[in-house]
Structure formats: structure tokens, C-alpha cells
Amino acid sequence: MRTLTGKELAAAIRAQTEAEAAAGPQPRLAVVVATADEASLWYVRSIAKAAASVGIACDVVDLGAEAAPERIDDTLAKLSADANVHGVMLQTPLPAGASAQRLAAAIDPRKDVDGANPLSLGRLAAGLPAFAPATAAAVLALLDHYEVELQGRRAVVVGRSTVVGKPLAHLLLDRHATVTVCHSRTRDLASVTSTAEVLVAAVGRPALIGAGHVAPGAVVIDVGTNPTDDGGLIGDVDFGAVAEVAGALTPVPGGVGPVTTALLLRHTARAANLP
Ligand SMILES: NC(=O)C1=CN([C@@H]2O[C@H](COP(=O)(O)OP(=O)(O)OC[C@H]3O[C@@H](n4cnc5c(N)ncnc54)[C@H](OP(=O)(O)O)[C@@H]3O)[C@@H](O)[C@H]2O)C=CC1
Ligand SMILES: Nc1nc(=O)c2c([nH]1)NC[C@@H]1CN(c3ccc(C(=O)N[C@@H](CCC(=O)O)C(=O)O)cc3)C=[N+]21
To answer: Which superkingdom heads the taxonomic lineage of this protein's source (predicted)?
Structure first.
């Protein structure tokens, strides 16, 4: 079994991004936050730290966990109109009553470095240039880095969120995989996932995917980052059990996560250099 780690790939992407960022005016990313969710805030801090390390300016605009949707909308619109800001990201989760899908429409698609605007998802589905959500792009980047063949192969994505599952299904289709998407209403999940040559879990349920869900030799990508009681992190895949069956598997932590952060910064540098 090959362990597909993401740290080295993330470092390589950051190095490239540092060079891209240095080639023009300093890129600036604005991260809009309206949550007290610890995992989400951890991600924001790691974005800020990684941005500093590659020469990208990062403003965290914290509106507080009680922010009204109108205020979030207004903030996104102002940042989208600000010529000094090249990338705008709206962090999830959001306060009750606020819809990420609705609010993200206020992000200028040219600055939509986490592919959250419905226009970005539509363009992705249509095969037009757009920023993909960094997490979905990270799954593709890992598969490419480890030279996993996609054309003609059976790929199964578990999860259909706008941030991960849906855009990822389009990216895999675009690479000529035969794609099946599963979700909470899927009947007999294991019977579907065990047909996958490439299996991606993006659910948010600790160790949902066990040995019985995986075909021998399959490539398994674990997007899940579920906090544990002792302050650690566990994926959607039961690593120990699936490692006995799979041909290749990403670890959590140290798999998709670091690549996600690196790609968000790459997108920001590219947004700053758009003609
Ligand atoms: N490493 C990284 O960079 C990132 C990691 N994540 C992590 O990925 C995971 C998924 O995130 P996200 O997509 O935002 O989550 P969402 O909660 O938005 O979506 C979860 C999806 O999983 C489906 N689902 C839930 N339970 C089951 C089940 N028992 N069987 C099959 N499908 C199920 C849901 O189905 P339905 O649509 O029917 O409700 C839904 O489509 C989380 O652990 C999150 O922390 C997220 C973003 C980035
Ligand atoms: N609009 C939006 N887009 C997102 O992409 C998004 C979001 N909202 N809200 C929160 C989730 C979560 N997320 C993570 C990204 C990287 C790691 C990551 O790098 N984790 C490290 C380890 C962290 C640790 O050890 O605690 C790793 O996997 O190695 C984790 C989680 C992005 N998210």
C-alpha cells in the first residue's frame, strides 16, 4: 500500500507560488470569517501563516459569529470592488440563516480563488476557465502528482457539497473518468464504493469508509478532517483497516489538507496576475 502524502507536493506548490507572487505586484487575499468554529479558525490561521511564507498579503476580516447576512454580503461586495484585493474567500460555516451559496455570488469571479461563486461552478461544469474550490483542486493535484490514471477509470465520490463533492465530480469527468457521486440517501453505500478504482471520501463522518467499502488495490483519497476529543484529527476513512485493502491511501493529517492551503495561495497569485 502506498501512502500518498501531501506535504512535499504542498511545499513544491508553495515554492512555485512564491516565484509567481514575486513576479508582479504583491498579491493580496482577503478571508472573510463569520464563525467561532475551531477547525475553521485553525484553517484561517494556517492560510495566513502560509500566505506570509510565500509573500502574499492576507487580511482576515472577522465579522463575528453573529454577523447578519447583509453585512457579509456588503463586505464581499466591497472587497470585490477593491483594486488592491486580488483574492476573496468566504470561510464556512456561516451563522444560522446565512447561505454560503447565496452570499458567494457577491464575490467577483475573477477574485473567487476558492471557487465559491455559482458562476465559477457553472464555468467549471462547462469546461471554461474558472477557479475550482481549492479542496477539489487539491484532490486532482494529488492524483496527478502520484500519476494515478483517470481516463476511462471508475471514480466514486462520496459527498455532494458545493465545496468538494460537486466540483470534484466535474473535474474528474473532465479528465474522462466514469464518475458516480454518493450522498446520505445513497442505498447500500459499500456496494457502490467497492466498484471504485479511485474512491474519494468527502463526508465529514469519522472513519465512515471501512475495509468493506473498498475494492482491492483501489486508490483512496480522504478529504475528511474530523476533530477528535483529544484535539487530534481523523479522516472519513478508517486508515488502519483500509490500508490492508487499498493500493494507495492519503493520510489525515498530512494528505489533502496541506495541498488545499497551497492551492488557495496559488489561485491568489494567479488572480493577481490576470490580464
Ligand atoms: N482537507 C480539506 O482541505 C477540507 C476538508 N473538508 C472536510 O471534508 C469533509 C466534508 O466537507 P463538506 O463537503 O464541506 O461537508 P458537507 O457537510 O457540506 O457535505 C457532506 C456530504 O456528505 C454526505 N453524507 C453525509 N453523511 C453521509 C453518509 N452517511 N453516507 C454518505 N454520504 C453522506 C452529505 O449528503 P447530503 O448531501 O445528502 O446531506 C453531503 O453531501 C469534512 O470532514 C470537512 O471538514 C472540507 C473542506 C476542505
Ligand atoms: N469556504 C471554505 N473552503 C474550505 O476549503 C474550508 C472551509 N470553507 N471551511 C473549513 C474547511 C476545513 N478546511 C481545511 C483545510 C486544510 C486543513 C489542513 O491542512 N489540515 C492539516 C492538519 C491540521 C491539524 O493537525 O489540526 C492536515 O490535514 O494535515 C484542514 C481543514 C478547509 N475548509
So the answer is: Bacteria
